[in-house]
Amino acid sequence: MARIRTTVDGLVYEDDVEPRMLLVQYLRERLGKTGTVIGCDTSNCGACTVHLDGLSVKSCSVLAVQANGSEVLTIEGLERDGQLHPMQQAFHDNHALQCGYCTPGMIMQSIDLLGENPDPSEQEIREGIEGNLCRCTGYQNIVRAVQDAASKMKPGASATADSGAKQTVAGGGA
Amino acid sequence: MIPAQFDYVRPTTVEEAIQALRDGGDDAKLLAGGQSLLPVLRLRMADPSLIIDLGGIPELKGVREEGNEVVVGAMTSHYDVTRDDTLRQHVALIQEATKTVADPQVRHKGTLGGALAHADPAGDLAAPALALDAQFVIAGPSQDGSGTGTRTVGAADFFEDYFTTAIGEGELLTEIRFPKYTGWGARYEKFNRVAQAWSIVAVAATVKVDGGTISDARIGLTNMAGTPVRARAVESALVGQSATEENVRKAAQAAAEGTSPTADADAGSDYREHLARVLTGRAVLAAAG
Amino acid sequence: MTTTENAPTQEIGRDRRRKEDRRLITGRTRWTDNQALTGLLHISVVRSPFAHAEIKGIDTSAAKQVPGVVAVYTAADLGADQVQLPCAWPVTKDMKAPQRPALAGSRVNFAGEGVAVVVARSAAIAKDAAEQVEVDYDELEPVLDMEAALADGATLVHPEIGTNANAQWVFDSGEAGSGGSVAEALQKAESDDDQIIVKRRFRQQRLVPVFMEPRSTVVDPSGEQLVMWSSTQVPHILKTMLALTLGLPEHKIRVIAPDVGGGFGGKIAVAPEEVLTLLVAQKLGKPVKWTETRSESLLTAHHGRDQIQDLTMSVTKDGQITGLDVKLLADMGAYLGLVGPGVPILGAFMFNAIYKIPAYRFDCTNVFTTKTLTDAYRGAGRPEATFGIERLMDEAALELGMEPMEFRRKNWIKHEEFPYTTVSTLTYDTGNYEAATDQALQMFDYDGLRREQQERRQRGDVKQLGIGISTFTEMCGLAPSRVLGSLDYGAGGWETASIRMLPTGKAEVVVGVSPHGQGHETAFSQIVADQLGVPFDDVEILHGDTQSSYKGLDTYGSRSLAVGGIAVVKAAEKVIEKAKPIAAHMLEASEGDLEFSGGRFTVKGTDKGVGIQDIALAVFAAHDYPEGIEPDIDAHATFDPENFSFPHGTHLCAVEVDTETGFVQLYKYVCVDDVGNVINPLIVEGQVHGGLAQGIAQALFEEAAYDDQGTLLSGTLVDYTLPTAADLISFDTANTTTASTTNPLGVKGVGEAGTIASTPAVVNSVLDAIRHLGVKDIDMPTTPYRVWSAIQNASGHAGRADEANVASPGAGLGSTASDISRGDTQGGHL
Q1: Domain with B137 in it: what CATH number?
Q2: Residue at C571 is within a domain
Q3: Of these four, A74, A174, C167, C497, which has the most CB atoms within 10 Å of its CB?
């Protein structure tokens, strides 16, 4: 067992974990953060994407012990005071999800993408989410959603626009 | 799927890491970015008893200039490689190739040294490293076994076979030193079936063009053998030529010389040889601007 | 209370954003694997690495020693080898159905079949211990090739049934009286100088549905009812089949399909692991969970497609089809799935497609091999048929030297000919192929792209342009119960809905269909809002739990709207019917003077009225209602359609083929689909996009391949190559509308249309790009290697006389029948 201390969606957690425990398992099984899901065992699908210290990673390909001392942001930490993150809102507005299983990872990666490139072309969006598989939408409305969010997250476009992107979350007591 | 059980240590210095390797023996495995290792562990294709996480060693990260070289710490992430201004200016080829590695999430976590030490013949960074004559600094037990020492191995000797490098038992890769190719054009021409797939074949080309004439060229091939292959015949055919499509394509005909590509469902060896020629032409033309 | 003042404008046809999104975009989801019950145990299945082997012995002693292991069971320990997992579709009276156990007892018949199960305190420990189970196998010869499997002396997958042939199913229009005899038509064509015969063999490769949520099942045996949560498309069928299969009282089982992450047919099953989880939970009296890994899913969840198609068409030289003969071999894999043997048979009604074909025969033999079983995958039988006919239409046009769209026009059913009864006996109610095609051609700039194609040809561009067509129809809305009965299907095709009017005027609508991404909660709310005149947000759709939704036939075959949605309409009509006497009583009017509109009963010619939501409160209080009726306006309805619905459309694809590398790049994709009246255009567009992606992926990217030992080569998502966003383009989609006359909403299905239509359009376009180089055919998926090889082979044989009969459609270099013999498809067969 290894002792780890992480900040997840703004709360600090300390736990003893087996070294083999994956970050995604830790989130789901220990913290109850089941919003982040597992879709494969080869890091292809991206469904488990979270932000680790402000950068998107596939939480199935990171050990929980590797996240010791880090800040993790999951799909469950995006809302601010009951307000959806602009990317969540854009996914809803543009019908960018059907079964919704890939959606948490898709949204987390799309936010990371805009943090990197606030005004991406269609091709840049497509390449920016190439680590995330969706079987329902054909990606077309996901691309639209990212374009929509990009336009709304441009500086000055929205008061909540910058939440989540490349920011760390303030830690709380736990 | 969940990996089999293992012990875990996270050294904070290279010396500690080498001590951990010594203690762990045959069953120890180094964890760099983990983007190849974690899937392998999850599929239980490997079950090391000890994982040595190199993520806590600050000296292994970062890019710096040293005279005529750019030195990249082995634990520098692909993401940091793609954003580094020094590399953009002096070693554009490694940056171009790194941009094509896997996907953004994997590039955030994966490392240059990890990918090179993994030595997957379809991996995208070995061929540019070979083309660029990179030098690999390997740390390990000193000769007398009492402390730690380093040795440097050239790219041509570093890659030994499928998933096999010159890194010996008890050693680890600490940095990769690239000569400067300031002002050279660069292109990594990658050919795969879908965006997520490994390269069927890829060509790493960097060329120096003076007044429309190619004055120097370095070309490495991905997945044309168990190790990356240098297309030396093409390089020498290019030097002194004007960078026209006809000249380049003619020179590229020699691209498959000295290769021994594998055959699989995605490509027969003849097809890989053909692709090497076509993609070499395209890569050189793009690199020559 | 909200009443009729706020009654919405028409909801049907609005692009409502989905109700179900909120929890999915915030992570408040309820996937089966999220279930974490106190004392939950986890299982891992020990699986055979061999395709075909006798089990000589299983040593579980080491596994039992692993700390945290609760039990290790072999088949005999659980009686799992005595289970007969159900096949609900015995397609013929003499169909051969081998026993399909939940765990193999003495012999394994495909790589991945379960032989033992480990129960442990965590999934990780269960997996650790599963690796300690020692199984002694005696390998047997695998059976991999369908034709070899049917040959005399072939190794038998199931020696006890004496053959590898599962069933042969034949339809002959001459015998059925729906058309002429194909044998006669072909005979006549052979001796007729004015006819040609076109023969082709096409291969439908094996695919994997790859729903994004891996399957998962949790069983809690501790209550009065045994509760199973499962990632399934078919909770109702699963419940009934568990009762029948295991001899459990049906009323003691509750099945819940919570949020389900995609299915595409892949979750229409009674899976061995569902049964195993239940058996283990019963044995231990504790809740038990099974969640598969992706590699486990690719290996063992059922596959789809996998056919060899031998097609023969006779056609007059001026382009009239005179006969169509279809011979299929369909790979069942090692066992029969829930509806597996019926899947290829659905194609019997679709090979004739939108065309007027005077003589038709369909002859399908289902074959057992030692591979993962096949069953429904998006489109189920209809994509295979559509591919066959739409590829053949191009090939025939080529032989005739006709423009491929012109050839189709010449043979399709004209819009004024509807309703039209086809040679395969279905009656197409409505459609307008001309309208969809004309709009598609215009959106696509067909003539402009043909010009661009010519220019690239003339320039000898490295990247050649190809244009492919698919004009398709499908039968969906499974299905009229009588038709299913005539096809020996094990159940009906009706669907149910109930509406519960709550005291505050809100409506709970319980449906028997079971969504897993389709957006039923939104679309059905729109229907109810219009029918009852209540606000969209006042409607809640309940589904996926047999305790609330006790009766239903679930979601597949594009049936949810065209069957389930109509049940909702019928239930709403009953609510209004029941409310009417109460309204009359409240308004002190006679029922005959009332009319219902916009959620309100009004007395004709007055402004007196009462809203349906007020009536709901009135019957809840029940202080004052008419004598002789119950104080209740809730209603339940079952709808059994009289016919299928027949969506159709025209799909046009342009690709660039890099002739140096063989790489195929999508260039433009246009489709115009007629799916009848549209409830929610946003959802319809989304269904089309996703369907296109899957159909295109069959053409270009996906294949479940086995090696010569029967080992699955595409066992992870590294090897089973799904398209990413970067591999696809934005599609141009549009709709034409002819309302279906088989249901009161005038709707048709949309879930499978994109998948059914797109595959042949893409392959036709790939071939069109490089046919001038001598390429005749390429197997799917048309990978760069296959495309390049086809070009190489064609150019290598260019001097041979028998290779000269090659042209693009429209180029006028047709061959005669004798040149095109079966299997003469040079190039690309790898």
Answers
A1: 3.30.465.10
A2: yes
A3: C497
Q: Do both B78 and B29 map to the same domain?
A: no
- What is the CATH classification number for the domain harbouring C633? 3.30.365.10
Nearest to C468 by CA among C74, C31, C770: C770
Q: Which residues of C touch A47 (CB under 8 A)?
A: 212
pLDDT of residue C795: 87
Alpha-carbon gap, residue B103 to B108, rounded angstroms: 9
Q: What would the pLDDT profile of C414-442 be if each residue is shown by its tens digit?
A: 999 999 999 999 999 999 999 999 999 99
Same-domain pairing of B65 and B113: yes
Residue B2 lies inside a defined structural domain of this protein: no
Say yes or no for a CB contact (<8 Å) between C295 and A140.
no
* Mean pLDDT of the C73-83 span: 96
Q: ipTM for the complex?
A: 0.97
- Identify the pLDDT of residue A170: 33
Which of B189, B196, B272, B277 to probe by mutation at the C interface, max C CB count within 10 Å? B196
B64 backbone dihedrals φ, ψ, rounded to 5°: -145, 155
Q: Is the CB of residue A59 less than 8 Å from the CB of residue A51?
A: no
* Predicted confidence band of residue A156 (pLDDT cuts 50, 70, 90): low
Helix (H) or strand (E) segment spanning residue C20: none
Q: Could you tell me the strand order of the sheet in which B213-222 lies?
A: B185-191, B201-210, B213-222, B229-230
**Residues of the domain holding B153:** 59-179
Do B157 and B250 lie in one domain? The reply is: no
Q: How many beta carbons lie within 10 A of that of residue C612, not counting itself?
A: 27
Q: Within this chain, do residues B166 and B258 fall inside the same structural domain, yes or no?
A: no
- C784 and B200: CB-CB below 8 Å? yes
Nearest alpha carbon to residue C85 among C120, C111, C109: C109
- The CATH T-level fold of domain A2-77 is Ubiquitin-like (UB roll) (3.10.20)
**Residue A9 carries which DSSP code?**
T
Most B CBs within 10 A among A48, A51, A57, hence the mutation to make, goes to: A57
Domain total in chain C: 1
Provide the 3-class DSSP secondary structure of residue A95.
Answer: coil
| B1 inside domain | no
Q: Are B153 and B258 contained in the same domain? A: no
Q: Are B115 and B101 in contact (CB under 8 A)?
A: yes
Judged by DSSP in three states, B177 sits in strand
User: Is residue C785 assigned to a domain?
Assistant: no
pLDDT band at B146 (very low <50, low <70, confident <90, very high): confident
CA distance C318 to B150: 81
How far does the CA of residue C128 sit from the closest CA of chain B (Å)? 7
Q: How is domain A86-153 classified at the architecture level of CATH?
A: Orthogonal Bundle (1.10)
What is the pLDDT averaged over residues A159-168? 41
Q: How far is A32 from chain C (nearest CA, A)?
A: 8
The answer for B88, left when phi > 0, alpha when psi is -120 to 50, beta otherwise, is alpha
Task: Report pLDDT digits (tens) over C607-620.
Answer: 999 999 999 999 99
The pair of three-digit structure tokens given for residue C38, joined into one six-digit string: 């106190």
pLDDT over 90, % of chain B:
96
**Quick one: which of B159, B71, B127, B150 has its CA closest to B280?**
B127
CA B50-A50-C125 angle, to 5 degrees, is: 40
Q: Indicate the pTM of the whole model.
A: 0.95
pLDDT in tens, A56-96: 999 999 999 999 999 999 999 999 999 999 999 999 999 99
* DSSP H/E element including C594: strand C594-597
pLDDT the model gives residue C824: 35
Counting as contact any 3 or more CB pairs under 8 A, the partners of A are B, C
Chain B residues near residue C784 by CB distance under 8 angstroms: 191, 193, 200
